[in-house]
Task: inverse folding
């Protein structure tokens, strides 16, 4: 990688540039700002009003189109449900800024469960909703809460990756369990075991890096974190 002719040092490792054949060009503009400045934050109230207005207008317009013109099926409920779910994901954290993290996770999971319930009601799919969709959402919410409890007191970057890999492996095993029980009534693990084995190998490799200071420092410099 060739450095910009105005660079006095590498922007990644901060090694000084020493090249008598090509001195630093101080007469050229730098490719990035030399002074640190902060972008003024957006007003939370304006953000709440903007997002709520957009989602509300989309919901109302689709509802009116479905009611007045395209009456073949209640398709607007899919859009309205999606807008309600997005409102919980995007706007609710700004409205309830004091909401704890676990409360936000449960609210997001409830929004997903509610939207999937709308799909189940419109497609007559309550059987797969209670046997498959709702348990999957509950497992994801539980794993997210457990992950937050594990990292909230501060953990290293590698430790967080290990926890994420372990959570993913557990989720895949439980997901295949639910799918097998719903489709056949028996548990015959196949693909989830392969995926969990791969994630376990990666987890063990990262544990080796985590507890070897010299190797950890080399990896940190190599990947710049």
Result:
């Amino acid at each position: 990688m060739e450095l910009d002719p105005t660079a006095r040092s590498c922007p990644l490792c901060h090694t000084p540039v020493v090249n008598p054949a090509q001195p630093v060009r101080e007469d050229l503009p730098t490719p990035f700002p030399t002074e640190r400045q902060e972008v003024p934050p957006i007003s939370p109230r304006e953000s709440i009003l903007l997002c709520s207005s957009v989602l509300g207008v989309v919901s109302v317009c689709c509802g009116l189109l479905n009611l007045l013109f395209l009456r073949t099926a209640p398709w607007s409920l899919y859009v309205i449900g999606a807008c309600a779910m997005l409102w919980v994901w995007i706007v609710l954290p700004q409205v309830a800024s004091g909401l704890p993290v676990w409360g936000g996770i449960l609210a997001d999971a409830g929004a997903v469960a509610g939207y999937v319930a709308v799909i189940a009601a419109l497609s007559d799919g309550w059987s797969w909703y209670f046997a498959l969709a709702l348990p999957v959402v509950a497992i994801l919410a539980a794993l997210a809460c457990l992950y937050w409890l594990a990292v909230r007191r501060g953990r290293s970057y590698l430790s967080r990756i290990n926890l994420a890999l372990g959570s993913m492996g557990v989720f895949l095993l439980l997901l295949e369990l639910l799918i097998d029980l719903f489709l056949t009534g028996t548990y015959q693990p196949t693909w989830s075991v392969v995926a969990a084995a791969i994630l376990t190998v990666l987890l063990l490799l990262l544990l080796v890096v985590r507890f070897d200071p010299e190797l950890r420092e080399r990896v940190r410099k190599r990947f710049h974190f």
User: Anything to note?
Assistant: Residues 157-183 form the longest helix (27 residues).
